[in-house]
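Retro notes, item 3 of 5
We never archived the inputs for the nicotinamide-adenine-dinucleotide complex last cycle. Fixing that now. Sequence and ligand:
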Amino acid sequence: MSAGKLTGKTAIVTGGAQGIGGGIARQLAADGAQVLIVDINEEVANANAEHIRAAGGTVSCMLGDVVQEEVANAMVARAVEEYGRLDILVQNAFSGAGGRGSAVDIEPADWRAGLASLVDALYLGARAAIPAIEASGAPVGRPATEVGRIVNISSAHGLMQAAGWMVYEVGKTAVIGLTRQLAVEYGPVGITVNAIAPGHILTENLEKLWAAEGNDKGRRLFELQYPVRRMGKPEDIATAVAFLCAPEASFITGVVLPVDGGHTIQLQENLVMDLKDYIVENPDLRTYFDVPGAGVPRH
Ligand SMILES: NC(=O)c1ccc[n+]([C@@H]2O[C@H](COP(=O)([O-])OP(=O)(O)OC[C@H]3O[C@@H](n4cnc5c(N)ncnc54)[C@H](O)[C@@H]3O)[C@@H](O)[C@H]2O)c1
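Structure as it came back at the time:
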């Protein structure tokens, strides 16, 4: 593979087997980084790694649940042992822990499990990685502004609230606070820390759910709500992560970058007016989000 913007750098991508993280691992490797994928799904991680190697990239996989402190420490040790340094940490893994429901519905144990996965894991990852990134320093011949990069994956759900998603909304909002805190603390040593807030991204898993729903007009309604009139792809997020990790992005830190086709800047009352005719004309609309009883106004 020819030299890219990230040649000589080592990146950890949590949840890098598939979906958004899978795309991020492929992009960082394509840009020249040595990538360590950390995931609970060994088989799918290995398949993504094969794909990366076939394209000329350098990658290895580690099986582990990043909610565990010992896994966070072990992934950093493994990256340093295998590649001699650590430069980039992308914290993307999430498995849906915590479930859905309002404050009254959810059980305290689910709240704790959800926030452990959404927030604690990212704190533990940063805690383990930052000393190793600092110790690695900037690659030879590169300026001190290139010591390191952390990118945390939040969500449009971290910027706006959806009823019935208590754990996810609070967790993804906390990811933004964590990102900003790390940014002010580690900017002085040359580590930038940013968050990305994806809109709806058609991962392998979500593509299957849409296909199972089989309601093309409902899918089209979902796309129409986006100013760009489409849902996102893992590559849309991956290229944004690669940009934030590149040398040119050294003056960008503590930001939340929405990568959402304009979804979160759109005035919703106009959107409803724009789409109401489509809804009236297509009374059988369904999306895979449809759950009996969900969405019924409380008042
Ligand atoms: N897909 C979307 O529309 C969307 C939108 C906004 C934000 N996000 C966020 O993007 C991230 C990735 O989502 P996705 O849709 O690509 O998910 P996905 O389910 O397609 O992939 C997640 C990957 O993470 C792994 N994983 C899950 N929990 C883990 C853990 N504790 N330790 C290690 N690996 C673990 C899974 O095995 C899987 O390979 C998540 O943080 C999610 O909240 C997704």
